[in-house]
Amino acid sequence: MLKITGLSSGYGGLAVLKDVSIHIRAGEFAAIVGPNGAGKTTLFKTISGTVPAMQGSIEFEGKDLLSIKPSARAHLGIAHIPEGRQVFPSLSILENLEMGAYTKAGQASWKENIEKIFTWFPVLAERQKSMAGALSGGQQQMLAIARGIASSPKLLMFDEPSMGLSPAIADEIFERIITIHREMGLTVLLVEQRVAEALHYADRGYVLESGRVVLEGSPDELKSNDRVRKAYLGM
């Protein structure tokens, strides 16, 4: 579904990602882990189109993604749940969800999607008229995820969904992500600081350091790697 080959990208002519290659099959749950500053968020922004590629290619369902305007990429079925949630604080929960459903697929499946969203996140149903800025951090993260689902995506990209949340709330968010993946059959690409949890649920994992993929493999292969065990699992 998503094939990234030899990708380099960055800011102001300075490369953050260097020769990155990642291949993800349809319906797969892939995790990308690595230290802060490794380029994980830059990777997501390059896929979304907010950061330009310097070289390499990105294919999504066989289409050359780099030839498609950033504003059109969501219509292909790519939803980016950004780091820091970035909900629209002055809009209500329902209005935020309506903003997420601006894609053609999202508009066509609005009733079906909103029913799923309110089943998975009942607090959003209860408070749908409340302003998003009045929600707790955990509730805003739920809203950010729900807004992505409202677009009827094929690929969901989660950038640090547990950031700034208590362990209990982060666990709840993770459970929802797993449920959504299983029930909707979506392809999931996850960047997450909780490495053990990310690898536990993933089908495939990549380790990104200093803008390069230094390791890739199954979760078991990565968890048994001494480099990963020492640097990310505290073992």
Defining key terms:
single chain; 235 residues; alpha/beta; Rossmann fold; 6-stranded mixed beta sheet; 4-stranded antiparallel beta sheet; 26% strand
Can you characterise this structure?
With 235 residues, this protein is α/β, with parallel strands linked by helices. It has one domain: Rossmann fold, CATH 3.40.50.300. 39% of the residues lie in helices and 26% in strands. The strands form 2 sheets. Strands 6-7-8-3-9-10 form a 6-stranded mixed beta sheet, sandwiched between helices. Strand 7 (155-159), helix 8 (167-184) and strand 8 (187-191) form a beta-alpha-beta unit.
CATH arch. level architecture: 3-Layer(aba) Sandwich
Helix content: 25-40%
Looking at the structure, the CATH topology is Rossmann fold
Mean pLDDT score, rounded? 94
